[in-house]
Structure formats: structure tokens, C-alpha cells
Amino acid sequence: MPYSQLQNLWGRSKSLAKLKIINLSHSQKLVEVDELSKATSLKEIVLQGCTSLERTPRVDQLKKLQLLNISSCTRIKREEIIEQIKGLDLEGVLRETKSESMVFSTLVNLEPEENTESF
To answer: Please, which domain of life does this record's source organism belong to (predicted)?
Structure first.
């Protein structure tokens, strides 16, 4: 549902237990996504460009999460998300893919190095 006009997610009426990937990128009116903390099967959350988003879901409850993209979410403070995933990072779960990118992944080298040649 990229570019949606949602302000909030579905609330308590939807079962999110089987949800694996959600892409709400560039949903500029989206304010909160707290319900995603209940989606325990989530592997990817893409919230890139959600400029009204004030906080991320509780990622410490999402044990299968492999990607959290909150780049260009200007209301989310980087320090807050770093603190939230700090315990997970010790287990090697989520790491920022590139300094200050606000993209967190279980994959280590997502960004190519600047001085590498391509063939």
C-alpha cells in the first residue's frame, strides 16, 4: 500500500499474525503503526518517506524481522530507534546498513563500497 492516504492502521479488528511483508512507503499522512508490533511473522517493514510517522513499531517483539526501512521518516529520531534495537543488535539481528541511513537489516553488506569496480 505505498502512497496510501492512511493516518492509522486497521486497529484491533485485523489479525496480523501471518503478515510477512508490509510496504507503506511514502504514506505521508501515516502517524503511527503500533499494531505492527503484533505481526510476529513480519520479515520486512518499509516505511520510507512516511514523513508524519512519529514512531516505529516495537521491533524487539518482532523476532523474524530482517529489514526495517525508515529512511526519510523525518519525525523519527535516529537515537530512539538505535536505542530500541540495541539489545537486538547484540544478537546480530538488525544493523544500520549505512551510517545515518535509517535502513536496518540483518544483512551485513547491503551497500556496495565506494571504491569497488564493477565488471
So the answer is: Eukaryota
Ranges in the chain, pLDDT < 70: 10-14, 86-93, 107-119
Among residues 27, 33, 44, which one has the least CA distance to residue 9?
33
Domain boundaries defined on the chain:
11-105
Whether pTM exceeds 0.85:
no
3-state secondary structure of 78: helix
Nearby residues of 78 by Cβ (< 8 Å), 6 or more positions away: 100, 102
Number of residues that make up the chain: 119
> Phi/psi of residue 45, each to 5°?
-125, 120
Instruction: Say what the pLDDT of residue 111 is.
Output: 45
